[in-house]
Amino acid sequence: MNLQQPFARSLVTVRTWPFFIDMGVALCALAAFFVVVSTGVYWLGRPVPVVPISNSIGALPLYAFYSIVRMTIAYLLSLAFAITYGYLAAYNPRIEPWMVAALDILQSIPVLSFLPPVVLAMVALIPGHQLGIELGVILLIFTGQVWNLAFSFYTSLKTIPREMIEASRIYRYSAWQRFWQLEMPYAAIGLVWNSIVSVAGGWFALIACEMGPIGTHYFIQLPGLGSYLQTSSAAGDIRAMVAGFAAIILIVVATDQLIWRPLIAWSDKFKFEQVESADRVKSPVLELLRKSKLFSTLPGHVAHRIEEPIYHRLAQTRECRVVRPLDAGPSGKNSITLWVLAAALAIAVIWAAVQALFMLSTITWPDLRLLFEGAAATFLRVNAALLISAAWTIPVGVAIGFNPKIARVVQPLAQVMASIPATAFFPILLIGLVSIGGGLGIGSIALMLLGTQWYILFNVIAGAMSIPSDLREVATLYRFTRWQRWTRLILPGIFPYLITGMVTASGGAWNASVFAEYSHLKDRTLETIGLGAQIDAATESGRFPMLLLATIMISLMVITMNRLVWRRLYRLAETRFKLEG
Amino acid sequence: MQEAVLSNQDQAAVPAAEAIIRAERIEKYYAQPSENRIQVISATDLSIVPGEILALLGPSGSGKSTMLRMLTGLSTPSAGRVYWHEKPITEAEINVSIVFQSFALFPWLTVLENVEAPLQARGVPPEERRERSMKMLDTVGLDGFEGAFPKELSGGMRQRVGFARALVVEPEVLFMDEPFSALDVLTAENLRSELLELWAKKTMPTKAVFIVTHNIEEAVLLADRIIVLGRNPGHIRTDFRVQLPQPRDRKSEGFTQLVDYIYKVLTRPDVAPAEIPGQTGGPRTRDQRQMRYQMLPHVRPGGVAGLLELLLDKGGRDDIYRLADDLAFEIDDLLPIVDAAQLLGFLKVEEGDAAITASGTEFANSEILRQKELFREAVVENVLLLRQIRRAIESKSDHTAPDEFFLDMLDEQFSEEESQRQLETAIAWGRYAELFDFDAGRRRFVLPDAQEEEIAAGEDAE
Predict the structure, then answer these.
(1) Residue pLDDT, tens place only, B339-353
(2) Contact between A170 and B122 using a beta-carbon 8 Å cutoff
(3) Count of pairs with CB atoms under 8 A, one residue in A, one in B
(4) Hey, where are the domains in chain A?
(5) Pairing outcome for strands B53-57 and B208-213
(6) Which fold has domain A17-49+58-272?
(7) ipTM, 2 decimals?
């Protein structure tokens, strides 16, 4: 199976942009936070009907259905938004650097930390109704999924070969035709692979959201798989818990077999290659669909019916009659309204950002100390989780990768494992830890491990498989010592893959930290020192300034790590450790 | 005899009204942060008239492809205008096609869908679309392949699809951008003759063909009119009609003489065959022939050594055209090597002949270590950039220098991309000459290890 598709999160951008753009984006984020929180605070205390969650197995299908519906809506929304965003960024040189910088920052912010204010704001907008919470959760999953999809689509648009674009121009394609015959097909593979990662991340967040009571005053629970697991673990109902896990695993495997694999196999035709490659993903489901007469001809006919009138009409437009130059710079028409609008927007953003900063002034020195301690603890925990994952996955992954027979079995398995939301296991993990007397400190590392190690594992396997056999033969022929084999051949060989896996894993681990460091079990509150715990505790007590500052700190840490460590390592991997051909 | 072949040298006197596409003093330049600008093409007049195959010939860097894109409306000239039947090209409904070097087929569409796509853009109804496409596929000899995907086809077949797609819209002018250069020799030859056949039989409704190529023989074989471009910046060196009757025989005297003539024009960039159009106002443009850095040809030192050895075997002097023929090289492959050898003083170009110099002879006769020494001497003497790099690292206390420093200076003179390539070539030459080494991780020039020690020892002794 070909796993060499780059995931967008790993596509740490090579381009750099001026510092003021970063600052501008950060200001916008602050302003957005302020708006969200003030909507939330305004309506604070409105009662929300609490839906009692049943833990009978009979209720499980319905809960699973709810979760799937939330997931689907969030995913479709992200896809639509990602395509629009990528399109705007790629074709508007003036706002392009802003949009790319925003992407870069937004995709590294752990979304779970936004759960409380976002849900509160949505509840406030639609008061007295479950719909508010529903929308809040969907919006949150959406924010978690959308950025890497948008990034993938944007990079695809930017890498379309020049002559292909020229061909579409000289043959006077309409924007519609260009989208369906050039841009979408070219971006399809990246979108499919990033969708897999996005949806896996989405499940992780969804289960967490459904479980998460937000504050004691405004307890929120949504009917879904997460709340089902939460309730049954609280009640100590083992049968119900097993059934809940089974349902989640079933959903993940079914998604993999019924949606992703057919999609990957189908998207193979969009591969931009000169010769047909030998190894292709096979999907029995797709084969079946292709053999079915109805499914192989019907979509074509329907599309034909819809398309023809559109093409016919578009052909009359000016766009399809005149060849438009590719290098037509930004037109000099700078209307005054545009400038006024931009200025007004800037002023509003600055005002809201300043308000948000004013909020911070209520924070005391002890609070600040607590936050810094928490930041250090979480930082150490995330990196410990990464190191532990790397320590066991590298030897195991290499051993598996060097044995193609095993690799063929284990690799897809690891991929499915990576898609199972680790948050589902959290309640049972906690019970186990409490019963053996362990604390949440270990528990949160365990949760991060559960969520992240699989990404590293399947990337290492792919890396080991990509090391050419002649290089391995050279190592054998010249009797490399074990040390030499690892330092001269294996580690450099898997380096780019390892980095790709680690970048994805670190994003996941940060996200998990918010969830993992603070938890309710029955009537006890378990917590450990950490930024995530601070975020949750601040939500619980309604201290938004603390929440804001903790979120800022966690985002700053992630962005700094990305820029100082991962981006450099990634560049190194791209230049020095790339196995050509 | 040249008169016979090259009658009508100054043929540009075609009445303007007849032209399908007419370019009026078009230029292309890129603005630099400083007040300089990089001129890619200097003001040029050009027209495409019905009934001719026009070949645009030139070395790499002469802006052939840029010219094609300006004439098709894909690229806007920095100055000057392009007219389609005397209407500005940005407003006219032009009907042209391009056959691309990389074929530019859509790999996810079948052969038939690829050919149908341009008709779809024009709103042709499905039945008619299919009929016309199938007919065109039949014409180019792809009957029965309509259901295949491009990646299942050979290069030659793929370019046939490219031709079918280009011709199916019945373009008034068919543009081709190095259409055969990605193909093997035999396939290219085959496609060329089929194209001529289509043209001669008027099977295609096309009124004019415009082909960009760097292959001299290809131009002489196909074209009714040849325009030779020079570089730095791109300009028309000569524009003439080819009076040889079709089908043309590569072995005929007229043919080889014409090829030889074009070689002469191309290898003597210093002799201006025609007056170069002056600049029109605007920001100051540096005359690139008087600039500080020479344009380093992008070749490996080994290539220079190989050429000199071959030349020595031939008695120290040979016709460049024959050399290329012997090596089965195309002009774009051989000319840079000749340029490099000439820059280093290893050979001289006279009347289309390459003649080895004394230092060149010594170089060719030496073994590898001595060759490196001679190369080093020649480089230090003749190449400013390498001299500067060496001096910079010698004079600094840590004996290193960042590449950015030199890139900045090169940027004043070349486009960003070209600066990068210049530097890469300089690195390759400098490494071979053991003038310096380059640490790719730190992006710095450093002294080679052995010399580092020597110098360190010398400093200690003082």
Answers:
(1) 889 888 898 887 778
(2) no
(3) 103
(4) 17-49+58-272, 292-324, 362-581
(5) parallel
(6) MetI-like fold (1.10.3720)
(7) 0.75
